[in-house]
Amino acid sequence: MKKIFSGILYAIFFGFAGILFISCIILIINTVKRNNTVHKQFEAIVIDEEGEGDKARYETINAEVSSETLSEYAAVDMKYGYDILDSESKRYLYDKIDENIYSVSDKKDDNGHYRIARLRISGERLSEFDIREVVNAYIYDNPQIFWLENLFGYAYVGDDTITEFYSVISADECEDCIELFNKKLGEMISGINSGLSEYEREKILHDRLLKKCRYKNGIESSKDGWQYFSAYGAIVTGEAVCEGYAKSMQILLSKTGIPCLTVKGEGDGIFHMWNVVELEDNWYHVDPTWDDNEKDGIIYEYFNLDSNNINKNHEISEDIKTVLSVENSTDIDTNARYNFFVPLCTSMNMNYYNTEGVTIDTFDKETDSRVIKAMVERAGRGENYFPLKFGQSMKYSDYINKLFYASPYKYYYYIDHANEKLDNSHKISRDNISVLKNEDNMTLRVKIVFEENKNIDKS
Description:
- The chain is α+β, with helices and mostly antiparallel strands.
- It folds into three domains: about 25-170, no CATH class; about 175-320, C8orf32 fold (Roll); about 355-455, Translation Initiation Factor IF3.
- It is built from 15 helices and 21 strands.
- A five-stranded antiparallel β-sheet has the order 14-11-10-9-15.
- Strand 5 (about 150-155) and strand 6 form a beta hairpin.
- Helix 7 packs across helix 8 (about 240-255).
- It is elongated and about 85 Å long.
- It starts with a helix and ends in a 12-residue tail after the last strand.
């Protein structure tokens, strides 16, 4: 039976040899975790209803995510993902996605998806990994495109590659969401005017994001809600997971002239995403999700760290070049999590405690004077936290004891002398003192509770 069947196949094959035909298309839906130059003329087309069975009707979305500068600073155009793509065909597909991203079908297709575009790359068979790499690069560079679904389809017709991309919402819904997103984005960037340092801009936007958004627990995949993985969720609806926080941080900072990228990896062994930011020619890690503490509010423990400090409890995923460096292309892990660019961060100059904290090495008169002056300044501005950084003259526990638990109870001494210089609305309470300790970094953050608020403050 097997021989007869094989003979029939050979007869069919040779009977049609030399005749041009199109292979049957097998459409494969792939889940994308969001988580050698080719000298050929590539062509990509959106197949119309006269073409390869594409019956979708596309609507052009009139609204676009704001490309205008929303502050007095020139926006930064980040193209790291695009620049790292290693072939003309990949870059061409990237460009075609970008050209068609605002063209969305008005109804769901037979598979229940709102199609963005079916594109054809002529004369090149892009692998599943290649297409996934292009989509990841596009999202990496364009976190504002929140409607692109984490699915894609692909098929081969002869030597051509057919790709298909989808939107999580219809064209009409997308237009409404974009307009709302632009409005909320503008509100968050409002007031970022000239004269602010890069650090000041970063901290203002970091704090606005964390006050606007809360972490959404119990979310495992985009099936639980696409918005939680997007900047739309963080900026508009106010709920997101780490991916939404990181994408929002990238958008907010790049719109105000500060280079910022997302980083994929693990945090305490769990898939995670955070950012790297460039300030005054040095790169820093900043993790807005981990700075958003449900109990203590904004904590700044992960605000501008170098690589050594972030690596204490974060693990950075491999670089795309490392993933692609295997000798045999069939050994590439299709589902690998990777980064396009993660700079080595060697400075702690712009770390929160190094920038705003008062350093205590020994408890002498000069130190007392500096601490009291800083306390008056911070309380006078109505700030809620007082950061301290300790030296190496004694153990961490000794610094804590001398401040709070043993003579001379220095922290209370500082409060009393600061209150002598503060008006009644800014006097600091000696009660309800809470602290955030970080012995590894020899830092301490004390919550400031004002006298007039001490009976109502519960945060």
